[in-house]
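We store sequence with structure; for instance:
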Amino acid sequence: MIGVEEWMEIQELHQRGMSVSEISRELGLDRKTVRKHLKGRPQAYERKPRPAKIDAYRSWLRERWEAGVHNGRKLFDQICKQGYQGRYTRVRDVLQPWREEQRQRAYMRYETEPGEQCQIDWGQVAIWNSHRLYCFVATLSWSRMRYVEFRQRQDVETLLTCLIHALEYFGGAPRIVLTDNMKTVVLKRQGTEIQWNPRFMDFAAHYGILPRACQPRRPETKGKVESAIRFVKGNFWPGIQFHSLVELNAQALQWLAEVNARPHGTTGEIPLARWPHEQLTPLSNHPAYDTSYAADRRVHKDCTFAYAGNRYSTPHRWAGKKVLVRQPVDGDSISVYSGTERIAQHRLNTGSKQMIVSAEHYAGLYPKAAPAQIACSQPSPSLPPGPGLGLHYVVPEVQVRPLLDYEEVGCAAI
């Protein structure tokens, strides 16, 4: 079993034109393994890296490195005083990629081939409706075609939804998507070792895209999208007026139609004129990836489950069982699944502590006659008339006498 990174390497080498045998020799894998993974998607299992003694000191070493302390032996002595018990070679290994990064600070502009790369990033533009407002920007590196979309969330579901909209706007998928080290893409990074967000990797595998994350603190690596974000903030945003995100994004599409038809400041050519030559992978063979929010829920005995502050019903057959709730990013409804079967659908309630139920979910749970009707149809017991009817026994009848009779009886006893 191979990991996701090795699967990506196989796809990349295959796209370069290497044969199965050449890839096998290059990566040290069996040809059957290479052939298998050229046809299928990567395995979900990944072996977790073993923790190292140096891991606890990486952030401190980086701070000292950025402060100008680049002597490995001095840094080793300092962390030994803090309790480090490992070897000096581990410190040297940590510093090596940073030294390489330092040597590459001076760089030459890198131009990609048509269809090779798309750069994506977020930029914050304002506070709107008491929440931050972000713009998602995607730029095709060769033609400089740009796509912009405004959102108030930056979670992985929203990121993937915006990226799908960008691919649809461009009319295809590039070979590589370049991002920074945002948590929705990169969960953890130690030098060149990257732990990718599994949802983003599943999306990339779905469209056959190779993800790339630029080096930390190297914004120039994705300078094309950085420049596009500054352009949005300086050219589109000033003076814009809108009442909803739908209206704002509609204005952004109109603006894109104009700016993509102007000569680009770097290439001197019109992005719309270069765009047909991008050679993007068509999306016709790729059904849209499902970016819905997904959550497991337990159905209670009353046939309802809790979601987003409210309770929703399911067919009574699923009482006590687990179900999967899916909510589209831009949708106002939720769908409930058991495995791949959709068992219920509800409109999403915007309130809280509400019960949203469907009568059909309880059909067949009771006999045809309702419990109240069954109780009323049973004969009532016959009780004799008198005080306390239905509550106590009938009070016995007694003779009523004047109080003087009791006084005479008392005097006679004395």
About this structure: The chain has three domains: 4-103, 117-277, 293-362. Residues 368-378, 388-393 have pLDDT under 50 and may be disordered.
